[in-house]
Every structure is written in C-alpha cells, then in structure tokens.
Amino acid sequence: PFEKVGNNFTDFYNNHLPFDLTNAQKRVLKEIRNDLGSNAQMNRLLQGDVGSGKTIVALMCMLLAKDNGFQSCMMAPTEILANQHFIGITEIASELNLNIRLLTGSTKTKDRTIIHEELENGTLDILIGTHALLEDKVMFQNLGLAIIDEQHRFGVEQRSKLWKKNEIPPHVLVMTATPI
Description:
The protein is an alpha/beta fold. The chain contains six helices and six strands. The protein is globular and about 45 Å long.
C-alpha cells in the first residue's frame, strides 16, 4: 500500500499544478488514493475524452508512488503517444526533482544502457515508453505503479508482463479515451 501523501504530491498540488482540477478529477484522484492505500493491488480503469485530464491524474498517482519509495511506468501503444506523454509530463513536472526517461523502439543503445542501470539501482523515478517496456532487460528495482494508456491496444499477455516486473505486482491504472 501507498500509505502516505508526501512532499512530491503535496508540493506539486499546492505550487506547480498549472490549472485547477475539475471536480471529477478530484473525485477520481481521491478514489485512486483510497485504492493505493489499501492492502489490495489496485486495478482501475480511468476513462475520459481526449483532453479530459487523464494524464495529470496519472502523473499525480506517479507522485504518490515516488512519495512512498516506488518507481512508476507508463506504457503507450505508439512512439508518438509515448513521446507526447514524456514531453507533457516532463514539462509539467519540471520544478520537481524527478528522474523521468523515455524508452521506445528507437531509443539508442547508449541511452538504453543508462535507463536499465537507473531502473535497477532505483534512481529512475518514472519510465515512459512503448512495448519496449516489456523487454526482459527492463528490470525495475521497485515498481509500484504501472499505467497503461489506450489499454485496448495491448493484449492481456502484454499487459500482464508489466505485472511481473516486480516481486510484488504493482498497482495498475489503465487509461482510455475509448468507451468500453
């Protein structure tokens, strides 16, 4: 369980959030915080239109993971979407002391080596990427939260590979703009 709301979440919410959250975002965030704080693994679907703020909710969940000593990852089905998430999250979280990296099929070998080392030694806080996150070489020190965007674009076996990236399965948040 993520037992505390710490400095990363609180500082971001109070000082760096670029807009006010909607009531729906606040409600969903509270529900997710309750799930993350329970003794059961969260497995939640976050559905909303494009531009409705799913990514900001996801980032705040990743901040809760960081506050509790865990790493997070976000997997998107295409390099374009993974890049979009990486750029957006990196910009919004620029004032925070977070190590955020991007891993896709086109990530250079030198950069991959750095990412793998930082994942395993725990200095990488958030990894955003594509199916490349599922590679056997991608091993986290302490993955606590796995976020999957446009989850219907991934197979069940692909998604379950993320759950096996940690000794204890991470909390899972799947996001979609497509009504299911």
